[in-house]
Design a protein that fits this description.
The chain is an alpha+beta fold. The protein has helices at about 20-30, 40-45, 50, 70-80, 90-120, 130-150, 160-170, 185-195, 195-215, and strands at about 5-10, 35-40, 60-65, 65-70. It contains 9 helices and 4 strands. The structure holds S-(P-nitrobenzyl)glutathione.
């Protein structure tokens, strides 16, 4: 059954693929599953109709028959379970991929989100520089550990998996900061993810939404 996902009608990232619908688009492209997109305004996100899909009034969501899911991690997990290509067949490797999915969302992403908040919303605060430096140290701690573990490997667990999909997009949230570039193997890892044809298709699809919206 063809799923429907939700995305911003007018994404604040202006087509850079930083909003979390990109995770779902990329996963669906990796497994070759066509999908429909329901575009929502910021106001529509908070309407009861959307809150029935996601109690927090956020994107992305995923509807497939009588199943409605929210939380990008849960959606990627669902797609990976039901299609070939994002989870390894071997049980222990699959368990380790799942651990890395949690690591991307629970261990690496939180300080990066904090960095974004400080970068975008604390510009006028007197304590901004001190706070930003503290957060950057936390981000560098995580990235340093991740870089050591990845080493010269292409992907986190042998071949490309749902874990890499999430980790690459989490790292992309630092685009423009120069921090990922301090770890050449991580920068190459992100570039490898971005070079995948499925990533390119997903990126082009979300970019098109921005181009159509800005042509209006
Ligand atoms: N934990 C949830 C998940 O993983 O699905 C988080 C969902 C979430 O925060 N969604 C954001 C949202 O809907 C969009 S992705 N926000 C609107 C709201 O809640 O009212 C976060 C995001 C937004 C914009 C940019 N950007 O412009 O660069 C990047 C990331």
């Amino acid at each position: 059954m063809r799923p429907t996902i939700t995305a911003f009608e007018c994404s604040p990232d202006e087509g850079q693929g930083l909003a979390r619908d990109m995770r779902v688009r990329w996963a669906l492209e990796e497994v070759g599953q066509p999908y429909d997109v329901r575009l929502l305004s910021m106001a529509a996100l908070k309407e009861p109709e959307h809150r029935a899909r996601n109690p927090f009034g956020s994107i992305p969501t995923y509807e497939e028959g009588d199943l409605t899911l929210f939380e990008s991690g849960a959606i990627i997990f669902h797609i990976a379970e039901r299609h070939e290509g994002l989870f390894p067949a071997e049980e222990n490797r699959r368990a380790r991929v799942i651990a890395w999915m949690f690591a991307a969302l629970n261990t690496v992403e939180p300080p990066i989100v904090e960095w974004e908040m400080a970068h975008y919303f604390e510009q006028d605060k007197s304590w901004r520089d001190e706070h930003k430096a503290m957060i950057e140290e936390r981000v560098r701690n995580r990235l340093g550990d991740l870089a050591k573990r990845l080493g010269d490997d292409d992907w986190l667990e042998g071949s490309f998996s749902a874990a890499d999909l999430l980790m690459v997009l989490v790292l992309r949230r630092l685009d423009g900061s120069g921090i990922v570039e301090e770890y050449p193997n991580l920068a190459a890892y992100v570039a490898r993810g971005e070079a995948r044809p499925a990533y390119q298709r997903a990126f082009a699809a979300q970019r098109k939404v921005f181009e159509v919206a800005s042509a209006d």
